[in-house]
Please model this.
Amino acid sequence: MKKILVVNVNWVGDVIFSSPIFKALKQAYPKATISCMAPLRVKEVLECVECLDEIIICDEGNVHRNIFDKIKLILELRKKKFDAAFLLHRSLTRALFIFFAGIPNRIGYDTKKRGAFLTHKVDWLEVNDVHRSDYYLNVIESFGLKVNERKTVLVPKDEVTQSVKTILKNNGVEDNDKLIIVNCGGNWDLKRWPKENFVELIEKLIGEYEQKNIKVIISGAPKDIVLVESIVEHLKEKPVILTGKTTLQQVVSLMSLAELLISADSGPLHIANSVNTDTIAIFGPTRPEITGPKGPGTVVVLQKDVECNRQPCYKLDCDDNICMKSVTVDDVFDIAVKMIRDKIK
Model:
């Protein structure tokens, strides 16, 4: 094969879970061009994935919303003359794009009655029975390809890392300061640790390390600004606030510079773990066996058994969110202190 397309999924964490696929494809077809089709929101993360030669934007919610834009995308794919397409995305629309693009080998799960548009139907796995990364890797393994390395890996760009160091310096962080990053956000409320817990944890971390060259940083996307402001207003001593001040690629570099990230199950958690940074992962409704970090960094998962979270829970209207509340501030703080001590001793 000379040209291979991977039709990827929509969210940062899931795209990171897919990252070992590109190295496996390059090992199997070292002279092939490996392309990836994905939404614009994950482009910057994909640019940090090894063995990926080209990114093609497919954004049905924006760029390719109407039928004419969809046809234009199909024609663009047809011109590239791909030999094979591996569909990680389970949508019928993506399968139709690949079918009408005339790609001769179309490999994916037979979901949403799209089997007629596939040439190779992947051996079935229930999405919540295996880790999400293994679910994606099964797409190429069912085609007979070998996966030698299953860890998720992101590689920060040097020029982006330099820009992050400048941002840190402009926010009072010295070159010899060590960083503890706290990520307060999450893509849905049910996975978020309570605000009052973050207030108490950040106060304790700042108090523990105020006489040392260790800075506490709050990261986050622009959508997290209101949440972070509601946390910071209760803090007497202020951490370094970088919420909304960094691009996604800068987040990759920022995480690579840190000693520790503390976060719920989220994209930043998987970014940090994939750049070999130690992480404390606070899990509640989701299961680490399915969406836990898979990178080279050391990770401590904190999750309490409250019975209703023994299987992944997606009850967005949960009244008390007991699964997240059951992980205490002391649980997180004690582990953080130990991990920092082991890291810098």
Summary: The chain has 14 helices and twelve strands.
